Sequence to fold (755 residues):
Amino acid sequence: MATTTMEMKLGEVAQRIRELRTILGITVEEAAEKTGFSVEMYQAYENGQDDLPFSFIHNCSLAFDVDMIDLLEGRSAMLRHYQVTRKGDGQTTVDDDGILISNLAGQFRDKLAEPYFVRYQYDEKLQNRPIHTDTHSGQEFDYVLSGQLKVQVGSHTEVLSAGDSILYDSGTPHGMIAVGGGECTFLAVVLSGDTEMKKDQAQTIARAMKREKLLAEKFVKCTEDENGVLQKIHFENADQYNFAFDTVDEIAKAYPEKLAMLHIAEDGTERRFTFTDMKRLSNQTVNYFRSLGIKKGDKVMLVLRRRYQFWLCMLALHKLGAVAIPATDQLLSHDYEYRFTAAGVKAIVCTSSGKATEEVEKAEEKVGTLPVKVLVGGEREGWHNYDAEYTLYSTHYYRDENSPCGDDTALMFFTSGTTGYPKIAEHSHKYALGHFITARYWHQCEKDGLHFTISDTGWGKALWGKFYGQWLCEGAVFTYDFNRFDAHEILPMFGKYGITTFCAPPTMLRMMIREDISMYDFSSVRNITTAGEALNPEVFRIFKEATGHEIMEGFGQTETTLTICNLYGTQVRPGSMGKPSPMYDVHVVDPDGNDVPMGETGEIAINIKDEVPCGLFKGYYRDEEKTKDVMHDGLYHTGDTAWMDEDGYLWYVGRVDDVIKSSGYRIGPFEIENVIMELPYVLECGVSAAPDPLRGQVVKASIVLTRGTEGTDELKKEIQAYVKSHTAPYKYPRIVVFRDSLPKTISGKIQRNKL
Fold:
């Protein structure tokens, strides 16, 4: 059995080599010459007729300009900062303190690297002391010639013997000493970096955040290091927690005039709401809802775009114990039909703008009339007039022993539904506490701050950035109720209103950088974040160049709060989602639920064996089977894949079902999309698998071009050549199609199964 498995593995390697040679347009004769084998021998190896020697695979990797791991495993190497590989008189620069360093090419001009002979004397006094570390530009390769060398790179320590080597980013603090009782000699090759020192480039987001005592500390307990970086978080009294009573009303009591929200209507009307306003107006709303027959446990859909009434209704429903179901006004009648039935909706509060009311009424023709319908911003037959009626009710509403809290259901979201009907993620009142990290350590909201998240209230992102966490931090939220996103309208608002923290999905950031954003005032902005979809490194680069701000990426789902992120104090690695939130025990696992090695792709999962984190959903409403599909064996399976580097950063690959399997290679679509998005004439791109009788699947790129760009056959070839030259050649799209738009869910996520 083992022999058969090995034969299969070598056969797959041979298949990959043959596929790669074909892609590069190299003949067998040329490949034989490049690898140093006879044509007959090369042909035999490539056809899998003979066992493949290491030298053949190694020479192929050099000839085809790919890493060994690409050929052996069908995937690209992932580790970026160092990888230890066990076993293999010049101009004196330093001769002091037991260290001799000689430059072996001191007279060579325009070198791409500096080779040094180094000798370290053994020093007993250094054995139990911290290793002195330093940084310099570029990368360093050290190869031990004799003795033993203890090397520290960042927080990692390795002991190297003769024949061992290490390659690392020398912008990371590093140092070394001789160990083992004798001197050590080694070859050090320093590869030049950019003219600016790496230690200057490796900026962190750490800054002096104010650490004022918050009312939320009754429920949230955080442990920070001496620099204010979050280490641990736990929750107390969560079983009694209700966001509306314990956060909003308590802030109103402590700071009656504290700004809660600055709301800008589409016509430019400015409204400022204090926490006292929020308390009083939500009390009127809850009394109004009770008069309409809405009670604890009833399901109430909110279709309110960015109307300020959304915040009043959310607080009212939390106080009453009815379950809020935020939804977008982009829904059509069949969407409402499904949602009304699946969730058992009793009432709806809807904006008068657009066609939402018409679509609701069409749905009612199929599933029956809803018991309660409330309209915001207008009048319509068969609907209650919220604006005219809620103000008639008392501004007082008191908590009692039956008021909702803790594990009671507070909120339900319909998921994106990229491959089928949306599921209903059910959240308790504890969910709000899970967003303390979101606001305090990711957005970096403060009491005197004004946070702006671009999101319709129909999406979970709105509650990430316009409601729970920001008010837990006692800061204010900024809301602009626009009809259509226009960067030219939004960008001046940062300077005009003094926005301090900002979050937007990558799609919006891409639209913003198409403006000359250097013209706008970002001086009040302290931190910028993004989530909702993976951030292309190219967007990160352009935005930083234009504004000086690094975009801090985060990852989470409808079912969770912020799960993987670049929190306060984290050194950003462009393209990475960041590290796991201290609130979640995150693993990268194989299909059997076992942790995969560093650098290998696996599914992102959350450990729930011991406890369910505050931010994790209760399950899918009325669907025990689908809940069990994702919650089993002590893990919540997200369905998203990533790989983890040696420092714990996670790098997004795609959904589990998105991985493309072509000629033995496993290819993640996101990496290819990143490369294609670098091209200036590409507006949007979606990469998917296309069936192929020979290779199983091939890579297909569906591309939306910028206005005025013609999608020609020559342009397709240019795109294919660009991908070949900027990533492993086997990842290039064999099929390129140009489209006017990409199929997306209502929430804007690409539906790859429809590409």
Notes: The first strand starts at residue 82 and ends at 85. Residues 218 and 236 are 7 Å apart (CA to CA). The radius of gyration is 29 Å. The longest helix spans residues 2-24.
